[in-house]
Design a protein that fits this description.
Hypothetical protein af1432, about 180 residues, single chain, mainly alpha
Length: about 180
């Protein structure tokens, strides 16, 4: 795939994300970020997917599957929108592995039974959530930080000292 084709693929994938979260959220809260109640929810998965694409030390196949999975990781959980029909089987599987319909408590328990790549992707998700978690009460913030740091340790042991590992450790020491 050449650069123009890849850019067009990224654009189309982002458009799916924006459409799903803007027009098909299961609730009004699923359409916005909670810290200001007006920023479109789609910035979260877009940040996750684009940040993954900048991980220069990750294998290309992980980045190419991972960015789409991150762009679409909340579609099944938070919207009434289906994944695109042409989604690659590896991306679909990864999105399904990252989906926890019963929420964060379920994720904390069952994520550890999922693939290494699902845990890697979840670290991007958790770091993004912490970046705009000003709305979280202290106990919830601490719970999310603890989970993110467990993921950070796993990702560092499995994939090395990625940028997301550094970002996670930096965010975790911040007190909102």
């Amino acid at each position: 795939m050449n650069t123009e084709q890849f850019a067009n693929e990224i654009k189309a994938s982002i458009e799916v994300t924006i459409d799903a979260h803007t027009h098909h959220g299961k609730t009004d809260d699923a359409k916005i970020r909670l810290w200001d109640r007006s920023t479109p929810y789609a910035i979260h998965p877009i940040w996750c997917g684009m940040t993954l694409l900048t991980e220069t030390s990750l294998a290309e196949d992980v980045r190419l599957i991972g960015y789409k999975a991150l762009l679409w990781h909340d579609i099944l959980e938070d919207t009434d929108f289906p994944l695109p029909e042409e989604v690659e089987p590896e991306v679909k599987t990864l999105v399904e592995e990252m989906t926890f319909p019963d929420g964060f408590e379920q994720e904390k328990i069952f994520l550890w039974e999922r693939s290494s790549i699902a845990k890697l992707m979840k670290l991007y998700d958790k770091v993004s959530n912490l970046l705009d978690a000003a709305w979280m009460p202290d106990e919830q913030w601490n719970d999310h930080v603890s989970h993110a740091l467990q993921l950070t340790d796993f990702v560092e042991k499995t994939y090395g000292n990625l940028n997301i590992v550094k970002i996670s450790r930096a965010v975790a020491v911040l007190k909102k």
